[in-house]
Fold each of these.
Amino acid sequence: MTRKQTVILIALIVFVAGGIIFGAANRINKKSANNNPPQIPPVSDSKNSAEYYTPEVPKNAKPTEPDKIIQNATGQKTETLKIFEIKVTKKGYEPNEITVNKNDDVKLEITAVDGDYDWSMPLSGFYQIAKKGETKLIILEARTPGTYNFECRDYCPGAKIKGVFTILP
């Protein structure tokens, strides 16, 4: 191998190694930036917002008991994730009402039982499509109190399927 070929080979190895290191560092930065679940954003004042959100919560509303709770102790802070399993069938969402406290971290496990369905919470940007037998996950922070409507928007057999997600103050 000539000296020129050796220099080119070393330069190529350094270039590839640099790309691998840069890619790994970029992936770590993206993961650390996404450690916090998305928040339900403050609701805009659009004309249609009343159909999907109201700042009022039902009187005497109590938090729904989650299906599972995961606690993760990190340093001095203990984080709790409340998990709710939602089944969707032609009859609707089960449960179709979920109530949580403000500042709860929530994971919704949405399972399409007897067909393809979607789950949409308009004004918040959350949307998932689940094929028959599939479970989709939505993780969110409950920060803005009020009552949010969710629905099956595009993949619904027959009439629209609706539900209510309430965040207590």
Amino acid sequence: MATTTTVAVERFPIAGRFTISRGARTEAVVVMVTLANGGSVGRGECVPYARYGETVEGVVAAIETMRGAVERGLDRKGLQEAMPAGAARNAIDCALWDLDAKRSGVPAHVSAGIDRLRPVATAYTISLGLPSEMGEAVAKARDRPILKIKLGAPEGDHERIAAVRAAAPDATLIADANEGWTEENLDRHLSACAEAGFALIEQPVPAAQDEMLRGRPRRVPLCADESVHDRKGLDRLGGLYDAVNIKLDKTGGLTEAFALANAAEQAGFALMIGCMLGTSLAMAPALLLAPRARFVDLDGPLLLARDRENGLRYDGSLVYPPPPALWG
């Protein structure tokens, strides 16, 4: 029986404003792929990301070019060979995982060799702002065990680091500079994070300039985000980073994400499982990688004014496995 494909662009308002070093947003724009076959329906969501040269229109067009092949039965392995890594492939790949689970009755995590999924604690993101604003935001979220702190502004990060630690003295803190630090301020900010007891620093400098990290003394582990997308970019990261942030929109889906996780662990990297700003449908496949991760950052739905129906269950920062009506 042939598969039919539907592609939809959806918009979800953000609760307030989401700000990082590259700018601010008030809504999340996602692309959803729906695959239907014989009464079974599989779905996948992706988030086009301008930092990687993606647009909503371009991602939709890339998905449409694969429509014929998918409807003729292209499988996940063939998809890996037919499309490059990125958001478009992610949506199709995750929809294929979901469709396979719905047609077979075998949950996606079981097909992936995982006996059982359990609730995990996710980081909760604090947007970039004035030090006083970020301190206030952290104080409101101080009951959450893990906070991810957006940094990387031209000025004031030293004060931001101090303010957030003072507001949440017991929380595990992750710094995410989103490539915003420079050769001139890097050592100062690394030292400030160490003194404040941060557990991890994510992508402190631009990916194209991260060789400056090689051999540099640091007391806090560094995690690659923009510097790694899939296995092709992994080899050069030795000596630069201690961990890698795996995001399905970068890897081009769950299939490559598993392969990257295997390769990264074999190379001695710790794993962080992250996300773009999307709905529960984007988070659900990534939860299959969470049991292997040192840090989980799947808080996208917590930052939205509304999530999609049948979304993930969050209890504070604890996120539960996806219900069958959502995915997998």
Amino acid sequence: MGLTLYEIQAEIDNLLGTVFDLSEETGGEIPDQLGEELEGLQLDRDKKLGNICRYIKNLRAEAKVCDDEAKILQARARTKTNRSKWLTEYLDGVLNGQKWTDGISQVSYRKSTAVIIDDEKAVPEEHLRTKVEISKTSIKDALKAEKPVPGARLLTRNKIQVK
């Protein structure tokens, strides 16, 4: 395992590390018997739970590092895309519709048709798309105010927090 904030007992680290490494290869599938295998480890309950909590914290830290790296890579990709667009527009301006090749690269043009909307309000309704979305926030507010909302209800859950 790469980044670790906490030391984890070897038995738990080996079991979870092996299972999770395999799950990455199978698209995230975690075997059902993992819970049984954790239960079968001969460790003090409090130590086992503490180690699992620390494992969760380590996984979250690794996920954050991955997210941060993804943001850096996305920014780099955006920069490369913008440079490519600018250079393509430059080529278009220089060539002005004329084909060009040097034996390795080539530039050609093809006809395309685009729809330009000059006045959105003037477009007939038959050409409009509307997407209906349910506002869970407004439903929650109404139900909390004891106003019935057909087809909806509140569900109270106990949400686990690992800190």
Amino acid sequence: MRRVPRIGGRLARKDVRRPIDLAARIDRIESTDEIRQLAHRYALAIDSRNLDDLVELFVEDVRVGRDASGRDALRAWFLDALSRIRTSIHFVGNHVIDFEDADHATGIVYCRDEVDRVVDWGIGYIQYWDRYERRSGRWYFVRRQFHRWFMVDALTRPEAGAGIDADGLATGRLPEAWPSWSRFWQEVEGRKASSSTKDH
């Protein structure tokens, strides 16, 4: 059984599964590029509302919610979700990919999005926590977990968590979704407490 790393955990881990021989190294480079293309094609399909191309980026047995699976169910979900907004622009940025083995990987993708929400023009930042799998020589999404820093009107000064529940999509709240975030602040508080004790 392969070990599945927790997405959102430690970032600076060593890639213990680095390929050694030339063929495996070339395959890793090609796989990295194909996986990055998944994220870009996803953004294009969302913004162009090309649901047929969109669902083809996912494995055939993709899980949709708790009770459904398959591309037809995923297409129906996107049809409903995307009908609530008009124009959208998704600009893909940083993309970190970690390979579990030659055919399985995880990734974290940053994305700036702008959305015509009918009542206003929203601007926000998303982070996707992905799982990828290669099947029959082609890479697919197995899962995309959606997290958001904020989504606000273009004229509003953003702050963490602002407006993220307004669109009706269930998202993880960033930066709190990262386990390292709370550990960092606990360490800061611990240092303050320790410093305060030394002062007395």
